[in-house]
């Protein structure tokens, strides 16, 4: 993945396809750039180099794009922060605070206000988590009482697990900063490792995978332990995902490498759900890559799909630059077909930050067509992509898939989970009908867990109460509903902000 080029393309697409059509002219955009002493002028050639991916764009410059283009805070900076970790590129090194006493005092005072906020039931936005952890990163020797570190880490983890889109990306990066803080990192690692031991934890995969952002020996030991003796299948999936980043940085010792390989070598190339992760890790840990047992789709077939999707998306936007096509196609190719799930996630966030989001969702929805009743492979690929790009039309599609007859169970499962990320405009009547239908059929625990997940993230308490109270509900599904119902009341409102 060409991170710098993707970020430059994202900025160019937002500028040229934004609501202010005058900004399609780079010179006009450059003239609007300065803001007194706060934002210094920038030359038009610098903007051109940023957008071509020729040089690294400073984070403050990306924030200025958000301001000038009237984009929500974090829409672009969250992608800037997220992509390096997902694509195995070095994260920017933290810089300690320097400056005069007045500046240090102001920053410390602001950090104190935010700390009071996160250690209370008050709403904390993604931008505030970004600001607080950014300030703490500048003070590696910051001293806080242990209970404050613990409270902050536990709340941040919980909010990240139930957040979505930009709000999730901001908290993911904030947690990564805490992991790597010299004095606060232990509390963050302990929060994840402790949650990983709870069998009925409903966001287990993300909880364990988050540990991959840390090189601390306790974090690595926790992931290796979950590979060798997992709490459940979801903990194993999270450990394998988290280790992808750890292995890339070369942080496993020989004994840990042996324990990991003993588990992953039988999974690599097996076609199992952990195949892609396991194959990548085994290839990095050994010199003999495994042979995949199920060949990938032919390259020409993939190219045809990518060309079709990108052409339909471009046809729906007003006045795209002809240069957009190649990079857009590259990112869509990664979104749909890259072997590494983290790279697919990075592509989804990059696309979702641009004006191509809705046109791509419509094009992908059209791709599903008459394939829903057929083999689940392609349908689940498209539905997984729509989790990041879709909106109300895709939510209605997912609802129809969940309640329709004759759809493969794996497709229904992915649709049930996808609903959590497509909006919360689902009536209580639909939830009641969908849950009743699933309970009347032969039990599929994964579909029920997907419905509990989507009901939990979207705050559908009546649906969760129905799942918990119905005598037909399997024990694991009742436990899932109970977990969501027991979330602290401030977590969801904060996680959605």
What does this structure look like?
The chain is an all-alpha fold. Helices cover 65% and strands 0% of the residues.
Distance between the termini: 30 Å
Q: What best-fitting shape do the alpha-carbon axes yield?
A: globular
Question: How many helices does DSSP assign?
Answer: 27
Any idea what the radius of gyration is? 23 Å
Class derived from helix and strand content: mainly alpha
Percentage of residues assigned to helices: 55-70%
- Percentage of residues in DSSP E strands: under 5%
**Which residues form runs of ≥5 with pLDDT under 50?**
289-297
Mind describing the biggest β-sheet?
Answer: none
The overall pLDDT, averaged over residues, is 89
Q: Give, in order, the helices and strands.
A: HHHHHHHHHHHHHHHHHHHHHHHHHHH
Secondary structure: number of strands: 0
Task: Briefly characterize the structure.
The protein is mainly α and 497 residues long. The chain has helices at residues 3-16, 26-32, 44-52, 59-68, 77-86, 101-118, 126-137, 146-162, 165-179, 185-196, 204-209, 217-228, 233-248, 254-264, 275-285, 299-315, 324-337, 341-352, 357-368, 376-389, 392-403, 409-418, 428-440, 445-457, 461-469, 475-485, 491-495.
């Amino acid at each position: 993945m060409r991170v710098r080029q993707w970020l430059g393309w994202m900025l160019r697409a937002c500028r040229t396809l934004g609501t202010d059509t005058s900004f399609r002219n780079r010179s006009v955009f450059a003239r609007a750039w300065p803001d007194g002493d706060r934002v210094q002028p920038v030359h038009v050639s610098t903007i051109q180099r940023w957008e071509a991916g020729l040089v690294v764009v400073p984070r403050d410059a990306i924030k200025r794009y958000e301001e000038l283009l009237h984009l929500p805070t974090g829409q672009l900076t969250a992608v800037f922060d997220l992509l390096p970790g997902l694509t195995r590129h070095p994260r920017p090194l933290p810089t300690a605070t320097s400056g005069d006493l007045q500046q240090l005092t102001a920053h410390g005072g602001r950090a104190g206000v935010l700390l009071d906020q996160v250690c209370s039931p008050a709403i904390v936005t993604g931008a505030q988590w970004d600001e607080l952890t950014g300030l703490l990163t500048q003070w590696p020797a910051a001293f806080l009482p242990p209970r404050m570190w613990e409270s902050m880490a536990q709340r941040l983890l919980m909010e990240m697990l139930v957040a979505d889109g930009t709000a999730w990306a901001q908290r993911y990066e904030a947690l990564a900063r805490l992991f790597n803080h010299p004095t606060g990192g232990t509390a963050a690692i302990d929060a994840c490792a402790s949650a990983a031991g709870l069998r009925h934890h409903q966001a287990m995969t993300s909880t364990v995978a988050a540990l991959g952002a840390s090189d601390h020996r306790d974090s690595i030991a926790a992931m290796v332990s979950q590979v060798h003796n997992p709490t459940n299948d979801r903990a194993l999936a999270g450990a394998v995902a988290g280790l992808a980043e750890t292995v890339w940085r070369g942080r496993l010792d020989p004994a840990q490498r042996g324990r990991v390989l003993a588990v992953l070598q039988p999974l690599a190339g097996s076609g199992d759900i952990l195949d892609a992760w396991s194959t990548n890790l085994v290839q990095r840990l050994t010199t003999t890559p495994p042979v995949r047992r199920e060949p990938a789709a032919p390259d020409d077939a993939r190219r045809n799909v990518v060309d079709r999707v990108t052409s339909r998306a471009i046809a729906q936007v007003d006045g795209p630059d002809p240069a957009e096509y190649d990079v857009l196609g590259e990112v869509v190719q990664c979104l749909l077909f890259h072997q590494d799930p983290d790279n697919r996630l990075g592509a989804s966030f990059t696309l979702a930050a641009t004006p191509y989001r809705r046109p791509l969702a419509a094009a992908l929805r059209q791709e599903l067509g008459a394939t829903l009743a057929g083999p689940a492979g392609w349908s689940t690929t498209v539905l997984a992509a729509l989790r990041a790009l879709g909106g109300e039309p895709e939510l209605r599609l997912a609802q129809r898939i969940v309640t329709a007859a004759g759809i493969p169970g794996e497709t229904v499962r992915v649709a049930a989970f996808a609903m959590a990320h497509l909006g919360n405009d689902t009536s209580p009547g639909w939830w009641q009908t969908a849950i009743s239908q699933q309970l009347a059929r032969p039990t599929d625990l994964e579909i029920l867990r997907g419905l509990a997940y989507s009901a939990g993230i979207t705050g559908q308490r009546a649906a969760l109460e129905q799942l918990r109270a119905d005598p037909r509900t399997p024990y694991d599904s009742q436990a899932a509903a109970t977990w969501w119902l027991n979330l602290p009341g401030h977590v969801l409102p904060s996680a959605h902000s």
